[in-house]
Amino acid sequence: MRIGFFDSGIGGITVLHQALRFLPNEDYIFYADTLHVPYGEKPKEEVREYIFNAVDFMANQGIKALVIACNTATSIAVDDLRKKYDFPILGIEPAVKPAVENCEGKRKKVLVLATSLTLKEEKFHNLVKRIDRHDIVESLPLPGLVEFAENFEFKEEKVVPYLKEKLSSFDLKQFGTVVLGCTHFPYFENSIKKIFPKDVDIISGSIGTAKNLKRVLEANNQMNDGTGDIKFFKSGYEVEDKETLSAYNELLVLLDRMSSITTLV
After folding, report:
1. Which domains does the chain have, with CATH numbers?
2. 241: which of 104, 124, 225, 230 is 20 to 30 A away, CA to CA?
3. Known catalytic residue: 103?
4. Would the annotation count 125 as a binding residue?
5. Would the annotation count 8 as a binding residue?
């Protein structure tokens, strides 16, 4: 049986990329709900319906585990999804805990970059309240990065001016760690690094999620001897056209070529 990965768009491929590193012999289904991307700026109940429709579809494919490779979808629906399905469901959330631990001794702040909906959710606020004892966590929604990614626009000359505008009100020297709280954002790691001082760590929850997936499969004796084969789906239909398949595989190559995001988890 395959492992399912779900996202509103292509952001979840950044998490799938990490899973392929830690679990190269598994086979995968990747489902992108491209008809409804982006989730981060839509009403919560509307997004919940999209998520449950997508997971119903994936469950009918016979998956053995599911990774909600979307911070917004995790914050909205992961608890209810776990109540409905009997296979393991892993979510992803902004890596606030390791970021705070990394900054407390440095007298630096943490900046969480995410979608508007993730930052509004009670799940995120409870996470920050539980961990941020010294009030060092700040946040900023960057919906434009989702749009850039979905349009396969990764050129720094396009992305860097957007980032400079959005970050213009922040004193970037105050920050010790930047948290990429949306799975679309690791595509822009190099552009983000150009904006912040060199000693700022940039982290994501993707690596921790991939490691956790491996632990769960091992604990459940569900490890497979596959080939790393991936079936791609877009909003209920299997992707079969060569152009789209090539574009998705090129994203995995792009992530391979990029310098690794700092691992603090």
Report:
1. 3-92+206-257 (3.40.50.1860), 96-204 (3.40.50.1860)
2. 225
3. no
4. no
5. yes
